[in-house]
Amino acid sequence: MGLSKIRIGDVISLVDERNSFGITDFYGINIFKEFMPTVANTENLDNTKYKIVRKNRFVYSGMQTGRDKCIRISMFMKDSPVIVSPAYTTFEVDQEKILPEYFFMLFLSKEKRSVRMVS
C-alpha cells in the first residue's frame, strides 16, 4: 500500500471538552513538545472551564509559537486524562485515515521544530 497526500483539514477535528468530571491535574506543554504539570498557582481556579485532554488527543499553543520560535504542539499519551488551559486548542485526528503517532512524528522532525519569523 502506497502513501497518499491528504489535506490536514480532512483528518483533524477540534475538540472542546470541558472539565465536568472534577479532574484536578493541571498540565501544559513545554518547548520540547512534552506535557508537564503546570507551574502556575491553580488554587481557587474554576477547573470546569479547563479543557480535558485524553489519550491520543493533541494540544496546540498558539500563544507561544511566535515568541518561542517553535510550534508548540503535543500528543497526550497517558491513559488518565488531564486538564489544560482553555486558551489551548485541542483536537483529534481521524484514526481511520492517519495514526496519531505518525501525525505527531511529523511535528517532531527537525524541519518542524522552529518557525521562521518574517519581519
Write the layout of secondary structure elements.
Elements: E1 12-14, E2 27-29, E3 35-37, E4 51-53, E5 58-61, H1 62-68, E6 72-75, E7 82-84, E8 89-93, H2 100-108
Antiparallel strand pairs: 1-8, 2-3, 4-7, 5-6, 5-8
Characterise this structure:
The protein has 119 residues and is of the alpha+beta class. The protein has one domain (9-112). The protein is built from two helices and eight strands. The protein has helices at 62-68, 100-108, and strands at 12-14, 27-29, 35-37, 51-53, 58-61, 72-75, 82-84, 89-93. The strands form three sheets. Strands 1-8-5-6 form a four-stranded antiparallel sheet. A hairpin with a 5-residue loop joins β2 and β3 (35-37). It is globular, with a radius of gyration of 15 Å.
